[in-house]
Amino acid sequence: MTTNTKVRTRFAPSPTGFIHLGNIRSALYPWAFARSQGGDFILRIEDTDVERSTQAAVDVILEGMQWLQLDIDEGPFFQMQRMDRYRAVLAQLVASGHVYPCYMSVEELDALRERQTAAKEKPRYDGTWRPEPGKVLPPVPEGVQPVLRFKTPQDGVVAWDDKCKGRIEFQNSELDDLVIARPDGTPTYNFCVCVDDIDMRITHVIRGDDHVNNTPRQIHIFEALGAAVPVFAHLPTVLNEQGEKMSKRNGAKAVTQYAAEGYLPDAMVNYLARLGWSHGDDEIFSRAQFLQWFGLDHLGRSAGQFDEAKLRWVNAQHLRALDDAQLATLVRPFVLQTGVGAGQLDHDDRLPRICALFKDRCDTLVDLAGWARLFYVDAIERNDEDAAKHLTQAPAALLEAFAAAIAAVQWDRESIAAAIKQVLKEQGAKMPQLAMPVRVLTLGTAHTPSVDAVLELLGREKILARLKSL
Length: 470
What we know:
This protein has 470 residues and is mainly alpha-helical. The chain has four domains: 1-95 and 185-321, HUPs (Rossmann fold); 96-181, Glutamyl-tRNA Synthetase, Domain 3 (Glutamyl-tRNA Synthetase, domain 3), CATH 3.90.800.10; 324-373; 384-467, Arc Repressor Mutant, subunit A. It has 20 helices and twelve strands. Helix 16 packs antiparallel against helix 20 (460-467). The radius of gyration is 32 Å and the shape is elongated. It holds the Pfam family Anticodon_2.
């Protein structure tokens, strides 16, 4: 690619299962590179595995990318809608002599591989039907539909400078002739990918390193079609917490599940970015900083390992940095999911202040919604351990005096704090003797922010009702 070529990257998932964090990182980096370079980001759905591809999987891809705000410039394109184009290019390669029909049956190929394995040779197609000058081909069997094979160069090397792994070389002699069309004429994966990347003018292919072995095949096809070979960057695998490749089979969750669990998209982008790329020692950064810093020169070469505790920590940092009004908007749907009515929130201005008070104690929007719920419902659940510790010996006279003071006080934080001090002085009690039972009675737990701040937000009516439940 020339230096003045506009950067064009792509994400090309197969909709054969839900998209998880390991998959979506392969969307994040090409998206970030395109954005950082003023280029275009294309979404292509590789749905040629008709039996396993589902619309539900496509929907999760689109929803996950929308949640993470990985906006696309073109697409989504679907390979199954491009079959006429693939067949036209196949015909072009047949006419140019780069592709030939092979009539070797599956049974013959299996027998060949068995013989090669027994002879301790690499199992591979032996070129029986490959046309060469002076070579006599076997007679064409009747009634057999051939596959189409690509004539792989037999000498020299195929190599590229990978932006993640460095120089990679394959001996052409190690590669057999690739099947690029099945007997029914449908093209195979490696061929379709090349046609798509050429037609979509892809300049940089940033994908998982499970594709490294496909790359020499694809380079040959690019060259046979007279197309520029894109820059490749093959990303190391994302491992789960057990050190296995992340997959649905190994317990990976759909990306959309993290949205439902109250994670912030910017926090997820931050966390995923650090699973294979770094900018010095920076752990927490904004989306804008990521796009300013991102490049292919600082991609990691070793596998990244998912750590949910680290993800929660990153999410907590982003949550705490949010403006309270913005945070209230984000947490509102989660509060509604706890059973609080929309009308209660619509006619109430407390939610931003509740967020301000509790966000330092929360890792996710779900955590924060759990706290917010307590300010709107009538009945609450108490922590059994806290109740046993702080309510069984609670001094009734002290709580009655506190209830009387709360019933009469002017309703602001300063006045509530002054009333608490006055009650403690009159009753000869210390703060924990009053504060701990009040916390458990009003919010169900002994672990809350400052009592006067909590009470001011909770409201006189709810406090008095909950104090009577001792």
